[in-house]
Design a protein that fits this description.
Layout (H helix, E strand, L loop, with lengths): L36 E2 L4 E5 L1 H6 L4 E7 L6 H20 L8 E7 L4 H14 L3 E4 L3 H14 L2 E4 L13 E3 L4 H14 L5 E7 L3 H14 L5 E8 L8 H9 L4 E4 L3 H13 L5 E4 L21 E3 L9 H14 L5 H20 L7 H11 L5 E3 L2 E6 L5 E2 L4 E5 L2 E4 L1
Parallel strand pairs: 3-4, 3-5, 5-6, 6-7, 8-9, 8-10, 10-11, 11-12
Antiparallel strand pairs: 1-2, 2-4, 12-16, 13-14, 14-15, 16-17
Helix pairs in contact: 2-10, 3-4, 5-6, 10-11
Length: 409
């Protein structure tokens, strides 16, 4: 059944994250314990030896997302963030004493491949799904998981319909909430009064943020002086959109888009001598990793994100250190979302008292209730809670790229 929308986010911006990640009194260490197992191209699995040996006595958690293709940075981050959390949980006794097996399937950000991946995981015996990573595949898989009554917690699927059914929850903010929060942040911090927008009208993520930003901008004293779209069929030349933004005297250009297009926009703006402020949402996370991109062009770019790797709280520092040691890179917000997703499942599972011998539908019924009863202090929010419509309750925050790194604002 269709579920109601979550009310708009609180205007408060959290600058520091929680000092420890606990749920229902549980505790953990932050050291990874096993290396990721990898299958051919489309799958990566991670299970500890204890989980393998336990067989039917272990919980089976699946994951779906792009680990190849143009959005692979998101899927790889989610796969690794979840894997790190699972290794920690297994090393500390598992969920209610039961180990976790983990199997991640590649969907290449394609809806048909995502559904195929879901069926592959069902055949494997999946009992809970952390996924999918991107919105369109998440919506496609959601129709299947709803029919099966399979518990689905997406770390990063932000389109409204990613939490359409009562078996679906999310860790990230929805697109409308990101749009409203962006307008609120720009207005509250007096970053600009004249704003231009460049967005992808063919993409549900970009359009959803755009539409809510437009409606909230007026409440924040923001005048949208240029509002220009592009599509997936025309996403390499942004000279027209940038020229209109410049001609409109926009002080800030809002980019509710993905990082690959944002990199092109920044480069083309530089070529034409246009240097406004740029502000985006979580889709810009990954901008600094674009191949052959001059990262100096991203200096002072701002974006809403629930996670800043340079935060000084103990939990973030332990997570970043463990992630760097295991994978040789700094984690982004998608890795943090996935890490929190796994710990949310652990908290809800232990609250509900589920066991590995229960079928997926029975587990789902139990988790639908217990997810609304837990509070999680995580990487992406303090005192996170979930409502029955699957939406998280937490405060957003913003970061700025300074000297090539994300810095909390």
């Amino acid at each position: 059944m269709k579920k109601s929308m979550k009310k708009l986010l609180s205007l408060g911006m959290a600058i520091a994250l929680a000092a420890s990640l606990t749920a229902c009194g549980g505790s953990k260490t932050s050291e990874p314990t096993t290396a990721a197992g990898a299958e051919s191209k489309a799958a990566s699995g991670d299970t500890t030896e204890a989980a393998k040996a336990s067989g039917e006595g272990s919980f089976k958690i699946g994951g779906i997302g792009p680990i190849t293709g143009s959005t692979a940075i998101y899927g790889q981050a989610v796969m690794r963030g979840a894997e790190l959390a699972i290794n920690e949980i297994n090393a500390n006794g598992g969920i209610g004493g039961a180990q976790i097996e983990y199997n991640f399937q590649d969907d290449e950000n394609d809806t048909e491949k995502a559904v195929n991946a879901y069926n592959t995981l069902k055949d494997w015996g999946m009992q809970m799904l952390v996924g999918t990573v991107t919105s369109a595949p998440c919506i496609a898989v959601g129709a299947e998981s709803s029919n099966d009554n399979m518990f689905q917690l997406t770390p990063s699927g932000s389109a409204v319909d990613c939490a359409k059914f009562d078996n679906q929850f999310r860790v990230c903010f929805s697109d409308p909430n990101q749009g409203a929060a962006s307008a609120q942040y720009i207005g509250e911090n007096k970053l600009a009064t004249k704003v231009a927008i460049i967005y992808d009208s063919s993409d549900v993520y970009s359009s959803g943020i755009h539409d809510k930003f437009i409606s909230e901008a007026a409440n924040q004293g923001i005048e949208v002086v240029s509002d220009e779209a592009f599509t997936a069929d025309n996403n390499t030349n942004f000279s027209v959109q940038l020229q209109k933004a410049q001609d409109s005297a926009a002080e800030l250009v809002f980019l509710p888009i993905y990082y690959s297009q944002a990199a092109l926009i920044l480069a083309q703006a530089k070529q034409m001598g246009y240097e406004p402020q740029f502000f985006g949402c979580d889709g810009l996370d990954g901008l600094l990793t674009v191949e052959n991109f001059d990262t100096s062009l991203a200096e002072n770019v701002m974006l809403l994100t629930p996670f800043a790797a340079d935060a000084q709280d103990e939990l973030t520092q332990k997570f970043v250190a463990a992630f760097k040691e295991k994978y040789g890179e700094t984690p982004n917000q998608f890795a943090a979302d996935a890490y929190d997703a796994v710990y949310a499942i652990k908290a809800a599972a232990e609250k509900a008292g589920i066991t590995p011998d229960m079928d997926a539908s029975a587990i789902c019924d139990a988790l639908k209730t217990s997810m609304t009863e837990i509070t999680l202090n995580g990487l992406t929010g303090e005192n996170m809670k979930w409502s029955a419509d699957g939406e998280p309750d937490k405060a957003p925050k913003a970061v700025k790229i300074v000297n090539g790194v994300y810095t909390a604002m």
